[in-house]
Amino acid sequence: MDIYSLKKLLEGVKKGNIEIEDAIKNLKSLPFEDLGYAKVDHHRSIRNGYPEVIYCEGKTDEHILGIIEKMNENKSNILGTRAKKETYKKIKKIYPNCEYEELGRIIKIQNKPMEKLGKGNIVVVTGGTSDISVAEEAYHTAQFLGNEVKRLYDVGVAGIHRLLNNKEVLFDAKVIIAVAGMEGALPSVIGGLVDVPVIAVPTSVGYGANFNGLSALLTMLNSCASGISVVNIDNGFGAGYLASMINKL
């Protein structure tokens, strides 16, 4: 249940269209439902504005399906991250409206229209093509949460003219997600060009001394450009979620 469904339920009780007993039945699974292996947080959209997101990596298909079943009963929109294609195929057989974004490893089940909460554009930028899988996780997360999102891929500092040739896209953004591996310089360059928040996402793309993204992470944390925040290595979901929170303010 989200905040809008809760308001509708309470308005129905107030007007006498819904019996109190029926309202209690709808509310009894709040704030969470204990499945033994998971406690499904039905209350989260009321507290935070967004339903709980399923992190699929490390979970069995049976556990993922069990969580989806309970969220589906509550008519929640469902987003799953780090999902395998094999898992998606099993879900699709039971929930035909399930969609899969293969590059970003995202599963989506849209049970009701997502209200457009964002007030401007979120732009997802990558340094290279190798960063796109992380960028796609950010893109589809932000889009699913009710934002207009644009892509600007393969415009890293090794060919900075590609970035500068797209300045208007950057200037039109309310929030920018900058995804880069290697030395991770892209967010600093973008931060020096724009007057909006830049969310830096280090990726594990790079050779040995990249230390699986640690070098990019440290570069971004030590950026001399103002207005940059940094999420964890390869955390496209966290960047997309944060960008959505900023964009709806």
Topology:
Elements: H1 3-15, H2 20-27, E1 33-34, E2 39-40, H3 44-48, E3 54-55, H4 61-73, E4 78-81, H5 85-94, E5 98-101, E6 106-109, E7 121-126, H6 132-144, E8 148-152, H7 160-164, H8 167-171, E9 173-180, H9 186-191, E10 198-202, H10 214-221, E11 228-230, H11 236-247
Parallel strand pairs: 3-4, 7-8, 7-9, 9-10, 10-11
Antiparallel strand pairs: 1-2, 4-6, 5-6
Helix pairs in contact: 6-11
Q: Can you offer a commentary on this structure?
A:
The protein has 249 residues and is α/β, with parallel strands linked by helices. It has two domains: 107 residues, no CATH class; 127 residues, Rossmann fold. The chain is 39% helix and 18% strand. It contains eleven helices and eleven strands. The strands form three sheets. It has a five-stranded parallel β-sheet with strand order 8-7-9-10-11. It has a four-stranded mixed β-sheet with strand order 3-4-6-5, with helices on both faces. A two-stranded antiparallel sheet has the order 1-2. It is globular. The two termini are 22 Å apart. The model has no long low-confidence stretch (mean pLDDT 90). One of its GO terms (biological process) is 'de novo' IMP biosynthetic process. It comes from Tepidibacter formicigenes DSM 15518. InterPro entries: P2CMN_synthase_LarB, PurE_dom.
